[in-house]
Design brief:
The protein is of the alpha+beta class and 231 residues long. The chain contains 4 helices and 13 strands.
């Protein structure tokens, strides 16, 4: 099992969903993944819904109408103030300066120089995901970017990540390495793409075709059909 007690600096450690309808999202993902949910009240009358696998934190969601529905990717850092300031120096925007998340940890929200948004997480009580790399758990974070060269420079200097092209010249795909381990992936946005640069969160499954059919039956949409990925 991919159980975790801590996450190293520069590793992806958490994901949560901003949704306009938390109950509908709980119904959809609870059926799809078998998640157990725990509602945690937060200041200003909000609720942070923890999704668990076997009692261990796997992801979360919260209801909001202030932003587009999306999964956020979090990277653990030792010092969120220092990492936020360094990101600024490297050309990023801080969409949210460092702030306390009660006693769980401290975070900021960053928009990289290519436009992709991610979060920095300095853990206190909560490490982030307590289980990864199993069905229904976070297994990969992927950057789809309008400028792969700029992204490599930014993240390489910010976190010390190394990028290795695992594809070819016509269809490049970079593995993002932290040391000798794959920490994520990156690919270029196709020309004329209707969306800006963004991070995607991947969840593991042992039945891709079955899950894809279930997504449609539960009111979701399969944007990319099941396909083999070399390697």
């Amino acid at each position: 099992m991919g159980e975790r007690e801590r996450h190293e600096h520069g590793t992806f450690s958490w994901t949560d969903l901003a949704t306009p309808d938390a109950e509908a999202s709980k119904d959809f993902y609870g059926t799809l993944f078998g998640w157990e949910f725990e509602d945690n009240p937060i200041p200003d009358d909000g609720v942070y819904v923890m999704a668990r696998i076997g009692g261990r934190a796997a992801a979360a969601m919260f209801e909001t109408t202030e932003r587009h529905p999306a999964w956020a990717s979090y990277v653990t850092v030792d010092d969120v103030e220092a990492a936020t300031e360094k990101a600024r120096e490297l050309g990023a925007n801080a969409l949210a300066d460092p702030f306390d998340v009660m006693d769980a940890g401290r975070m900021s929200t960053i928009q990289d120089p290519t436009g992709a948004v991610f979060c920095l997480w300095q853990p206190q009580r909560a490490i982030g995901a307590e289980i990864v790399n199993v069905p229904a758990a976070l297994t990969l974070n992927q950057l789809n970017t309008s400028d792969p060269d700029a992204a490599q420079r930014f993240y390489g200097e910010l976190f010390g990540w190394r990028f290795e092209n695992m594809g070819d010249t016509e269809a490049p795909y970079w593995g993002i390495y932290r040391g000798d381990r794959v920490n994520g992936g990156m690919m270029p946005l196709p020309p004329g793409a209707p969306m800006p640069s963004h991070w995607l969160a991947y969840f593991g499954t042992d039945d891709l075709e079955g899950n894809s059919e279930e997504i449609g039956s539960r009111g979701g949409a399969v944007m990319v059909e099941p396909m083999d990925v070399p390697g």
